[in-house]
Structures are given as structure tokens and as C-alpha cells.
Design brief:
By secondary structure, this protein is of the alpha+beta class. Helices cover about 25% and strands about 15% of the residues. The chain has a three-stranded antiparallel beta sheet. Strands 1-2 form a two-stranded antiparallel ribbon. The radius of gyration is 26 Å and the shape is globular. About 20% of the residues have low confidence.
């Protein structure tokens, strides 16, 4: 049998067995990711997360120059070693850059990344992956936009509230008593005749819980917000991260990217969206690829 016919027969067998399609949809997202264009070999339409063409079986993704592993075509960093995949493109605006260029001619940023002013680590993201400091003008603008959104939402909630807040119940003025048994250098101050208002304690607890639930609701509202590039997605979501969130849950693979490790900066394709993950380390587990997943998934 000619070599060409034998290769075609093997590819047809792979297609029929479904082994290629299993690899194509290995990291299937929770929502429809669309398409990533056409296969350069057979012109078949490629799913957005396709590592191999579902028709001919040829590789359609980016091969990492550092670790040698194949990544989906929508990735800009390697999902295994986090190295930059798009050689010849600016790490911030994706414009073409020449090897001899030190700066991008389009956005003016350094080709190799920006040194964080706080931790001095090199960053290829708008927010430093190591300490979270914004290192680009676009990051600072996104932080300001996020703060303005919070102010606008608070003003709207206050204006539309039909019930005026109840005044706090008066609390008896405490008397200060010094415990003479304690050493003077570390003596403890006790408050006597203090009257705790149970209703106020309950109201304060409810306010905290309501604030957290409101943060979760806002996160879910923006969970499927789409972006033109992965960097735009990272910048938008990190600027709006909640301080109580453990990490960022991506739509692409349903992974929890810990904010201690960069959050969306740790995701190779955050452009499909995601949301803050509220929980503890007990609520996630590490799978066989070394990625964190929610235990209820």
C-alpha cells in the first residue's frame, strides 16, 4: 500500500474511533467557545479549544518553545509552563515586533516585559503576577474604572432604597477598670457595665453576609463577558477582584487560578471569561495536570 494511502487510512481510523475528538475536547469549556478558524492542512473548521484538527488529526495549536507541549490556538501563554507562545508579537498589544526591537512600535512597551516597581520582577502582564501591582497605564485606568463602577452602584442602591436605615440603639457608656493583677507593661483593660445590643450584632452580621452575596452576584453577572484578547480579560478581571476571593474560576477549563499565583494571569485563555471563586483550599483539589478544580465540579 502506498505511504500516502496508508497515512490517510490511519487518519480515517483515528477519526472514526473518536480518539482525535477526545483530544480536541479535552479541555471543553462550560460555554460555547466558538471557532478558532480553519485547519491550515485540510481547511476544516476548528473548535476554539482544538489542539488537533477533528477532521485530519493534524496539530492546530501552539507548540511551546520552552516545554515542547501543544496548546490550543487561542492561548498566548503555555498552559503547562506559562511561557509566552506568540513569538514575534508584543506581549501587551499583540502587534508584530522584530527580534532587534527593544520596544513595541505600536504601544511603546518593552518587548520582553515591564519590571515591577515594587518587587522588581519582570512582568508580561498589566498587573504584576507576583505582587499584584499595576505596571501599565491601562491597568491603572482599569482600576479607576472599577472604582467608579462601585461608587455608581452604591449611589444607585442608596437612591433606590425605599426604607431609611434604622438608627442604632443607644449603648450604655462603658466604665474603664484596670486589672491590678496584670503587670504594668502589659496590663489588660476591661470594660465594665458594657451592654451588648444583640440586634445590632445581628444587623452587622447580616450586612457583611449581604455584601459578600452581592459581590458573588456581581461576579456571576460578568462571568461570561467576552474579550478580544487574553490580556484585556486579565486586566479587566484583576482590576475587579474581590479581596475575599480565593482565586479566579475560568470558563475555559473550570480551573481555579489562585490569586496568590496570579489569578487570571495564570490562565492561558481567560478571554472566554470567568469569575471570582469564594472558598478555601478545602473546597478545591489538584487534578492530574496540577490544576486546581472545585470539588463540586
Amino acid at each position: 500500500m502506498p505511504a500516502g494511502d496508508q497515512q490517510q487510512q490511519q487518519q480515517s481510523a483515528l477519526k472514526e474511533s473518536g480518539s482525535v475528538k477526545k483530544q480536541v475536547y479535552k479541555y471543553q469549556s462550560q460555554n460555547d467557545g466558538g471557532t478558532a478558524g480553519l485547519c491550515p492542512k485540510c481547511n476544516a473548521e476548528l473548535p476554539a479549544d482544538a489542539v488537533f484538527c477533528p477532521e485530519c488529526g493534524s496539530s492546530s495549536g501552539h507548540v511551546c518553545a520552552k516545554c515542547g507541549k501543544t496548546n490550543p490556538p487561542s492561548s498566548d501563554i503555555c498552559q503547562y509552563c506559562h511561557a509566552w507562545l506568540l513569538e514575534g508579537k508584543c506581549k501587551f498589544c499583540y502587534s508584530p515586533v522584530d527580534v532587534e526591537d527593544a520596544f513595541c512600535s505600536e504601544c511603546g512597551k518593552p518587548k520582553d516585559g515591564i519590571t515591577c516597581p515594587k518587587c522588581r520582577q519582570l512582568s508580561i502582564f498589566d498587573f504584576c503576577k507576583h505582587c499584584g501591582v499595576p505596571v501599565t497605564k491601562e491597568a491603572l485606568e482599569e482600576v479607576q474604572a472599577a472604582q467608579n463602577e462601585i461608587k455608581t452602584a452604591a449611589a444607585f442602591a442608596s437612591a433606590s432604597s425605599p426604607v431609611a436605615p434604622k438608627p442604632a440603639a443607644p449603648i450604655a457608656e462603658p466604665q474603664t477598670v484596670v486589672d491590678s493583677e496584670d503587670d504594668l507593661s502589659s496590663r489588660r483593660i476591661r470594660r465594665a457595665d458594657r451592654k451588648v445590643n444583640p440586634q445590632k450584632v445581628v444587623e452587622e452580621k447580616e450586612e457583611v453576609l449581604a455584601s459578600l452575596e452581592d459581590a458573588k452576584a456581581r461576579a456571576m453577572e460578568n462571568a461570561y463577558k467576552k474579550f478580544s484578547t487574553p490580556q484585556a480579560a486579565r486586566r479587566w478581571h484583576i482590576a475587579r477582584r474581590h479581596p475575599d476571593a480565593l482565586g479566579w474560576l475560568c470558563n475555559y477549563a473550570g480551573c481555579v487560578h489562585l490569586y496568590a499565583e496570579g489569578g487570571p494571569d495564570d490562565c492561558h485563555d481567560p478571554s472566554r471569561g470567568g469569575c471570582d471563586f469564594f472558598g478555601t483550599m478545602d473546597d478545591i483539589f489538584m487534578n492530574e495536570f496540577g490544576w486546581y478544580k472545585p470539588k463540586n465540579k
